[in-house]
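Appendix B. One record, verbatim.
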Amino acid sequence: MNRTFKYIRILLGLIVVLAINACEDDISPVIEELQYDRLFTPLDLEARISNQTTVSLNWKFNKGIDSYVLEISDDSLQFSNIIHTATVAPDEVPYVYELPAGNSQYSARVKGTSSETAESKWATLAFKSDPENVFNNYDIVMTGLGEITVNWLPGKTVSSLLFVSADGEVEYDISAEEQAAGVKYISDLPNATYQVQILNSGKVRGFQHYVMEGDVFLPSGEDLAAAIASASPGDVIILDQGGTYPFVGELVLDKSIKIKGLDGELPFVYITEGVKFFEIGSGLTPADTLAFENLFISGYVNQNTSDQVRGIFDAENDACNVGGLKFLGCKMYNIGRQIVRLRGGADQTIGEYVVDDCIIHDLGRASGSYGVLSAAESNTNVRVIRISNSTIDSLVCHFIRYDDAVDCESITVENCTFNKTPFASGRYLMDVRNAVISAGIQVKNCIFGNTNYGDDPSISGIRPADGVTLTIANSYATTDFVNSGYSIVEQLNPLGVSSTDLWTDPDKVDYTFSSMEVDAGDPRWK
């Protein structure tokens, strides 16, 4: 038995040896390199957007590739409108390209090519550029009736300007020279309210809103009173930039009218005689508006610094009921008592009183009893009061005096810078002690500076009537803003610096920030 097992083991061993030798005879050579009939598709294609419209396209390098073919289309993976094609060497990846517009859909595809092997399949990617506006920090400047200069970021690829209004569309081509300079002059734009779009082959690269208006152009030195008298209701009288316009005051405005300066240096308006600029005509209705825009209004009568007008408007005993009274983008300097005062026994109503984007400086030296608005009787009413984006500086009077009016919806003061307001004993920032104001008083995003004067370092704050809500939000005070009564100091955020440390030169009406930035106040100083 043992001998039998021994022979079996020997026999099995011989079989294994023979099998191994047989296998060695059939072994193929080692495969040292994979064989393929085309290049591999580029991997990890990605797009990164910077500066709204600059795309950086990147992908991984594959062996055996001589160069890549890149295509960019302004759709989402359809590649039906190729806007850019490039041959890209491997050392030129990532590839950077300036897209024709922001906030737009694009696609990219890339494939590898070689002189020895068939090209790869496409790698594809959809992406979107970031929103842009090449109008940012650039203005449209009105230079005459129907004439404007449009400015945008120079060098940007743009093809036309499109003006869209309720009356339709007007398009103006942009030349190569205008594109490079970032400016186009237009001389025939009809009056309308527009959305202005700047395009690149139909794609919007930016937009802004603009109101083109103007019916009469009045050269410097011409008679403003005569122009107002001959104007039609609703006309806009355009004054020349930097022009001078003296006229006899106490002029009755008996129709809707706007007096507006061209963009640039404000035209200088003053009266040669009288105690006020204008009166609100008794024939005006709630559908009418009186508006003043882009004007420098000087309160010195005939530019005699010892003779100041009482105010721009002073309604003495005459009934009126006008829909709106607006000051926009104006400077109002050296006025003796008030900007607007309602008074007397007759019923007097203003639907909306607006002061926006203005600077008011040196008000109330002749009498401190009034203010930017004064309406102290029960039948003198302003329904909506809105003062915004403005600087109120050096008031020897109240800011707002609104004592006994019974028909007011709201008082809103927003994004304003105050300094030396008020700046005299017994004066209030706002005195609305008996007024009926249904939606209350709101003060938002304002900065309050110095109230120190003489031996009396403070003024009174805001005195609301019983039942009138006072809301103060996101507003700030310097260390030299002090209230002796009806204080609002506790509702303001302390800045911890004085007015002279916060602002560059407040005594010269320069309220640019010098020591810190504050996210409030008149936006012009930011």
